[in-house]
Write a structure and sequence with these properties.
The complex is a heterodimer of chains A (237) and B (253).
Chain A: H1 9-41, H2 45-76, H3 80-113, H4 122-145, H5 149-179, H6 184-216
Helix pairs in contact in A: 1-2, 1-3, 1-4, 2-3, 3-6, 4-5, 4-6, 5-6
Chain B: E1 4-15, E2 18-29, E3 33-37, H1 44-50, E4 61-69, E5 72-73, H2 81-87, E6 88-91, H3 102-112, H4 119-132, H5 136-139, H6 152-164, E7 170-174, H7 182-195, E8 200-204, H8 208-214, E9 217-222, E10 225-231, H9 232-237, H10 242-248
Parallel strand pairs in B: 3-8, 3-9, 6-7, 7-8
Antiparallel strand pairs in B: 1-2, 1-4, 4-5, 9-10
Helix pairs in contact in B: 3-4, 3-6, 4-6, 6-7
The chains are: A mainly alpha (237), B alpha/beta (253).
């Protein structure tokens, strides 16, 4: 990875602006995850509403990244590390936008869950899982800005923990539903929330891949560890 | 992997006291376009000129090492440079047609090398060469017109026709498009892509994008060293040497 400056300094400014926009998106998405999970735990409909409203900002930034990246490609014809950087901002911003959507969806379900019976311990479990994903996102964006492939690899490995948390929550909800069918509606919503957070973790992993690609020029080939066993698991009633 | 056409081993070139090429070893594949890139004065043109002994004409130039084409040493005392240059054609930066007719420009090489036994055969070679250079349709009705009257892009294609008329096996091109507009450049690039089905093509270019577009292999020269040589795809997506990276991305250093 070259760190020298371009002879055309405007090119450097373009690339820095692109990364700055991605980092700004990252900050908003981190906040969205945290606020959405908190709105669920503290049953705070106003906070949930703010998360839903703020998603528009994230979408707008993604459009901005795409437009700027297209302009850089057209005018600068980036190659080698410059090209990898431009490709990475496009992909990372798409991942961030998806994570933002999941956070928004979580906040939507908060509104519905307020009308339903509470499930003991569930908001706390969800909050812990969301917290883990948020920290991973924070770290992977740090790794991106510092061009730290090693750190990106560590984040990638941590997705297994999120998968395991999801599996545990999945089992927990099944038990609640089997105990009392009146829990089913709430548990279904909570399960979608947990599943969406698990998907956020996958997007963070994908960002980690982009960091490694930007630094090293190749996407890691090894299959990352999988801790989500729910698709192959049968739980007896 | 295509067969090796040109094999250079430990080549050093000196212009007087100036050490212009430093211990360069490289294998250039047949039926492949190889581009040489690097900043001005890096030795890429010097090295290109070694491949058909163009440096012989420079008194102070001294060449060490081996250059083999089809495993034959082209610097062996028995090798006639004129014969070698029929086998290794060259196209220059500025189109340089002879001040003769379009027909004679192309017919000249085959004539002096005795490649045609009669006028009919010569006509055939001229037509075939102009067709290979993708200029036949534009000039077939005015073959007796002077070559110098053509546009820049047409003149360059005429020079390519002249170079391919002797049925060379290797075609060397020293910045063949730098004096041409983008349309003529595209036509030459398209032509280069067609020619590689038949020849080993080596092109020196200052345009990164051109190297990326036309070549399958790229060699980066810097201060007389061959810094990096590999698949064009790899060089332009993930070069291994920081000097290559800096040069192709336009960085200071």
């Amino acid at each position: 990875m070259s760190t020298g400056q371009h002879i055309a300094s405007a090119f450097d400014r373009d690339l820095e602006a692109l990364q700055a926009t991605v980092m700004k998106m990252g900050g908003l998405v981190e906040a969205a995850i945290q606020d959405a999970a908190r709105s669920l735990e503290s049953r705070d409909e106003d906070l949930a509403q703010r998360v839903r409203d703020n998603d528009r900002q994230i979408d707008t930034l993604e459009e901005q990244v795409n437009e700027e990246a297209a302009r850089v490609v057209a005018l600068r014809a980036p190659i080698a590390s410059d090209m990898r950087l431009v490709l990475s901002v496009i992909k990372i911003s798409a991942n961030l936008e998806r994570i933002g959507d999941y956070a928004k969806n979580l906040a939507k379900r908060t509104g519905v869950l307020l009308q339903l019976p509470t499930i003991e311990g569930a908001p706390q479990s969800i909050r812990r899982m969301a917290r883990e994903v948020e920290v991973m996102l924070h770290d992977v964006l740090d790794a991106y800005i510092h061009r730290d492939a090693q750190m990106a690899r560590q984040v990638r490995a941590r997705d297994e923990d999120v998968d395991q948390m999801y599996t545990a929550i999945f089992r927990e909800f099944l038990t609640f539903m089997m105990e009392d069918p009146r829990n089913i509606t709430a548990c279904m919503h909570l399960h979608f929330i947990a599943k969406n957070i698990e998907r956020m973790g996958d997007h963070v992993t994908s960002i980690a891949d982009q960091v490694i690609y930007t630094v090293e020029g190749a996407i890691p080939e090894d299959d990352r560890p999988k801790g989500d066993m729910t698709s192959v698991q049968h739980i007896e009633g | 992997m295509k067969d090796t056409k040109i094999s250079a081993r430990g080549v050093n070139v000196y212009y007087g006291a100036n050490h212009a090429i430093k211990d360069v070893s490289v294998e250039i594949a047949d039926k492949t376009v190889t581009s040489f890139i690097g900043p001005s004065g890096c030795g890429k043109s010097t090295f290109l000129r070694c491949l058909n002994r163009m440096n012989d004409t420079i008194d102070i130039a001294r060449i060490e090492g081996d250059i083999l084409i089809d495993e034959e040493d082209i610097y062996h005392p028995d090798v006639d440079p004129v014969q070698l240059r029929a086998k290794v054609g060259m196209v220059f930066q500025k189109p340089n047609p002879f001040p003769k007719s379009i027909y004679d420009n192309v017919a000249y090489g085959p004539k002096i090398h005795g490649l045609a036994r009669n006028k009919g055969e010569l006509d055939e070679i001229v037509e075939k060469s102009l067709k290979r250079a993708a200029i036949w349709e534009e000039v077939k009705d005015r073959l007796q017109a002077p070559g110098t009257g053509l546009s820049g892009g047409q003149q360059q294609r005429l020079c390519i026709a002249r170079a391919v008329a002797t049925s060379p096996e290797v075609l060397l091109m020293d910045e063949p498009c730098s004096a041409l507009d983008p349309i003529a450049t595209s036509q030459i690039e398209e032509l280069i892509d067609e020619l590689r089905g038949r020849f080993s093509v080596v092109i020196v270019t200052h345009s990164m994008q051109q190297a990326a577009r036309v070549s399958q292999k790229t060699a980066f020269f810097h201060l007389g060293d061959l810094v990096e040589y590999g698949d064009t795809d790899d060089i332009f997506t993930n070069p291994q040497d920081p000097r290559t990276e800096k040069y192709i991305t336009g960085r200071i250093g």
